[in-house]
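help with this record:
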Amino acid sequence: MKIVVLMASPNPHGSTSILAEQFRKGAEESGNSVEVIDVCRMNVAPCTGCVACGYEGDCVQRDDSELIRRKLLSSDMVVFATPLYYYGMSAQLKTVVDRFCAYNSSLNRRHLKSALLTVAWNSDDWTFDALTAHYKTLVRYINFEDMGMVLGYGCGTPSMTMSGEYPEKAYRLGRSL
């Protein structure tokens, strides 16, 4: 299976990258190919809502969103890897997701598998409610097949993350594919 990880943490050595790396390791050990796309280092402008794409065509903006589009439409699975920022995905990932509208029908037809890897400092039981609701809505709307979520509670620093159970959970999720 060809897997694309949309890495959406502006901190390249943070807790989100730990989960993404462990997921990648497990998935590759199971014979999958994994490409990590660092969306925070890409030039992706917010959707302008012009609808010139007709929800299935070329976007009028010329940026790295086209590269992401090509990668996703030639893959079997997308993994959303994001820190929790004010109870949602990072702005960088939200910008990429908003640009899905230019290839909405193509994404729907692909029936990609998907997963969510996320971390937060908080460890309250409701910490991920808004993000998981958003992710589940994307899964439903775009016809993704959810393969699982790793919700890293209490992962405020890389050392906190490494001492917890979540890197192993991310590894096992990747390995299970």
